[in-house]
Amino acid sequence: xxxxxxxxGRIGAPASPYDRPAGGKETAGPQQHLQIQYLExxxxxxxxxxxxxxxxxxxxxxxxLEKARKLIAVExxxxxxxxxxKRVQGKPEQxxxxxxxxxxxxxxxxPEFDVLVSNTPYQISSPLVFKILQMPKPPRCCVLMFQRxxxxxxxxxxxxxxxxxxxxxxxFWAKITHILKxxxxxxxxxxxxxxxxxxxxxxxxxxxxxxxxxxxxxMLRICFNRRNKTLRASWYTKEVLNMVERNYRIWxxxxxxxxxxxxxxxxxxxxxxxxxxxxxxxxxPGEEPLDEEGWGGIMDVDDAGNDTTPSFFGNSNAPVPxxxxxxxxxxxxxxxREKIRKVLEDDTKLADQRSGKLDETxxxxxxxxxxxxxxxxx
Length: 378
Hints:
This protein is of the alpha/beta class. It folds into two domains: 30-207, Vaccinia Virus protein VP39 (Rossmann fold, 3-Layer(aba) Sandwich), CATH 3.40.50; 213-310 and 327-372, Helicase, Ruva Protein, domain 3 (Orthogonal Bundle), CATH 1.10.8. 34% of the residues lie in helices and 10% in strands. It has helices spanning 30-45, 59-65, 78-87, 125-133, 148-155, 165-173, 213-225, 231-235, 238-254, 275-278, 331-347, 360-372, and strands spanning 71-75, 97-101, 115-119, 141-147, 174-182, 195-202. It has a four-stranded mixed sheet, with helices on both faces. Strand 3 (115-119), helix 4 and strand 4 (141-147) form a beta-alpha-beta unit. Keywords: Methyltransferase, RNA-binding, rRNA processing, S-adenosyl-L-methionine, Transferase. InterPro entries: KsgA/Erm, rRNA_Ade_methylase_Trfase_N, rRNA_adenine_dimethylase, SAM-dependent_MTases_sf.
């Protein structure tokens, strides 16, 4: 009689990198070392409050409760919320745990807290970071696990292939520190990508930029929509010109500024050239094209449900037949185009620069120049 087949090396394998082996003596393998390092990273930054995006079955949450004064766990799955609640029932940790049921990204307000720690679901990485950065009173520290490529984008510098809108925003509003790399073997079954744990410390008080986040990010969206093209190409598209004109009209209306809306005489204005035809800049060798969010990884960090990108940025790559515009050009449209030209060419001299090469000082100059021309983005 043949021997029964066994799944060698898989008996008692944990379902996640934080689960203990089922049965037998517990060993401190790479998964347990990862858990210890991850928790030590949290313990070093503070222990007052700590909401987490997904407590799951509570393996990390239980360890955090040993050190924290209070833990606010945000869980989208009712079954997981019930599981973590059951694990502390009747124990001293029960009074320190508060579970909020819902999607952390869709919550309009969160309770006040000091520290955020999360083994973040990769599909909400970008929305979570942007939600943290634009909070009026952000946590003083966040310890988060991301896909490694996403983590590298957080710390990328101007000129790097991974430098994007996410890089500018995260470094402008916070201090980003890489804590440790998490290899595929730390998970069972191994995922397709490497991971990394990072510390995000939002700037507060006098260190926090005296700039509207919506205004700043709105301008960066336009700049990085065409990351590998010049700013001239990004700002002189018909879609962007129309959007800036609408914003300028709103500003004039709110400030009781009269505008000249009379049509332009034929021949007085030159047709705006399609900058896609005027300039076709290919990515550098080894550099993959990025979407508006500046993300080209395996995980989709801005899925359709969470995307807040203006609709005109969602263009298809398929060629669209050009039709003659029936809209008459107005003098206010010419004025707006001249304001953009002045900002890019005269005031900042950045018209022929690419967003991927600019630093936060350059973008600050750009925003100040646009605001000086009464052009806003929020």
